[in-house]
Amino acid sequence: MNPEISKIIRERGLLLEKEVYELVDSFDDVRLVREFLEHLEKVSRSKVITKSVLNMDVGYVKRVVSKLEGGREVVDRMSLGLVSIGVSKGVEERGAGEGKEEGNQLGYKVFYADTKPDKKIEVSDFTNHFRARFQQIQGMLMARAELQQGLVSIGKISSDRQSCSIIGIVSEKRATKNRNLIFKFEDLTGSINALVKVDRKEVFEKAECLQLDDIVGLKASGSREMLFIQDVFFPEAMKYEKVKFKENFDIGFLSDIHIGSNKHLKKEFESFLKWLNEDERAKKIRYLFIVGDNVDGVGVYPGQEGNLELKSYEEQYSKLAECLNRIPKRITIFMCPGQHDASRVAEPQPLINKRYARELYDIENLVLVTNPCMVKLIEGEDEFKVLMYHGGSIHHFINEIKELRLMKAHKTPARAVREMLKRRHLAPSHGVSPSLVYIPNAEKDPLVISEVPDVLCTGEVHRLDIDNYNGILILTGSCWQSQTDYEEKFGNEPDPCKVPVLNLKTRELKIYDFSRDDEN
């Protein structure tokens, strides 16, 4: 290695994994090396720089490396070694698109979730799925400086009292008669019980919100018989710099259109379509993200047939296609399914079924995607990442986390989406409700948030809510349906006809309200 680069590493007291070491050695600018390592150290808050640290800010790494001589080859070689890019297995050949806008360098790439099991599902597939998930999130937690001192696998904890750090998945959770909490944590080497006392308020509050199948890091003391929790650490998604494009254009977000319902707000949706075609402000919109429950479906909830104006999927999707065909062709539309769409409920959900929605497949500016799905908008070397997820797990987070339940977070659903980013997982607890069932994947869990997005957009709750978590914009979608009898029974109050529009040059966010004639 270049002696000057070696000196920088020694001076900063860094420990570099082999692949990172080789990458830095390919730099021919010592000043750039110093800036690069300083940035990675800041991102990871650690002196140990691994491949997983590079994955924390892939956009920055690629921008730096691509500027080097022969940089593109280095980026390609480096990408093969990263933990994973996107929430999917990669860009699927069967529909992944790369669109190029004429006259500029804008484009997009779609990273679909891997939705097809390649064989009959067996119990061992779920075991391997959770092993894969554990290894994905373990890499993120190992990069946290707070856990590196005394980090051991559970199987190596002895009978002697000791202080240690562990990374484990929550397999059991229960309260004692004294209101303390006891958990069972597992890793690939074994399991152990851990207790947190109710009088340790700060750490108890962190532990209290832990859900089954969460993967976290612990600082603890104790022995093989029992650990006493001193602190809890989540993987945490963080965005360290805001991506801004040079070109001045907007992207818009919709969800829960519910075509076919007799509660569908036709007049208001018609106003939105007219606005897209006629209003000067709408002419800056280049991309539109529609995040599930595009039609009302059939047999989705008890007594639904009494609320249907269009009684079949075919009729509903035909009407939806008629509406989408009115959206100007200059706008590229990305659409994922939700629980009401013609797609299995188990996540990740595949594309909307062509058998029922043939007319959607003929719309030239519509890109059908999976749920979840990562869409990367591209301008030159810059990438703006939008993670689409309909949001089936939102209800579980609100019902099971005491703080969210008490604050009635169905009215502020972005607070629940924060929990996904904190855990780096869209729906960690498997099988606790019909909306939290997923297809196992032995290679990697498609619901892990392996690459941090710029925007995480959801639907499901029928209320627009906006939040910012560690530099990530959260948008929970409004709807185009008035309150149904089923929603009224559960106290869900929709906030319809709101459309958030984000400018990618200024990062200014505007909300347009089509529930009345004047627009806010």
Key attributes of the depicted protein:
single chain; 520 residues; alpha/beta; OB fold (Dihydrolipoamide Acetyltransferase, E2P); Purple Acid Phosphatase, chain A, domain 2; 3 domains; seven-stranded mixed beta sheet; six-stranded mixed beta sheet; 20 strands; globular
Q: SSE layout and pairings?
A:
Blueprint: H1 3-12, E1 15-16, H2 18-25, H3 30-44, E2 48-49, H4 51-56, H5 58-66, H6 71-79, E3 98-100, E4 106-112, H7 123-142, H8 145-148, E5 162-175, E6 181-187, E7 190-196, H9 201-208, E8 215-222, E9 227-233, E10 250-254, H10 266-278, E11 285-291, H11 313-324, E12 332-336, E13 366-368, E14 373-379, E15 382-388, H12 394-400, H13 402-406, H14 414-423, E16 455-458, E17 465-469, E18 472-476, H15 485-489, E19 498-503, E20 509-513
Parallel strand pairs: 1-2, 7-9, 10-11, 11-12, 12-13, 15-16, 16-18
Antiparallel strand pairs: 3-4, 4-14, 5-6, 5-8, 6-7, 8-9, 10-19, 14-15, 17-18, 19-20
Helix pairs in contact: 1-3
Using the alpha-carbon principal axes, give the shape.
globular
Q: The CATH topology of the largest domain is what?
A: Purple Acid Phosphatase, chain A, domain 2
Amino- and carboxy-terminal Cα gap: 59 Å
Q: Work out the count of structural domains.
A: 3
Helix content: 25-40%
Structure description:
- The chain has helices at 3-12, 18-25, 30-44, 51-56, 58-66, 71-79, 123-142, 145-148, 201-208, 266-278, 313-324, 394-400, 402-406, 414-423, 485-489, and strands at 15-16, 48-49, 98-100, 106-112, 162-175, 181-187, 190-196, 215-222, 227-233, 250-254, 285-291, 332-336, 366-368, 373-379, 382-388, 455-458, 465-469, 472-476, 498-503, 509-513.
- It is globular and about 70 Å long.
- With 520 residues, the chain is an alpha/beta fold.
- The strands form 4 sheets. It has a 7-stranded mixed β-sheet, covered by helices on one side. Strands 13-12-11-10-19-20 form a 6-stranded mixed β-sheet, with no helix packed on it.
- The longest helix has 20 residues, at 123-142.
- The chain has 3 domains: 3-82, no CATH class; 142-233, OB fold (Dihydrolipoamide Acetyltransferase, E2P) (Beta Barrel); 250-513, Purple Acid Phosphatase, chain A, domain 2 (4-Layer Sandwich), CATH 3.60.21.
- Strand 6 (181-187) and strand 7 form a beta hairpin.
- 27% of the residues lie in helices and 22% in strands.
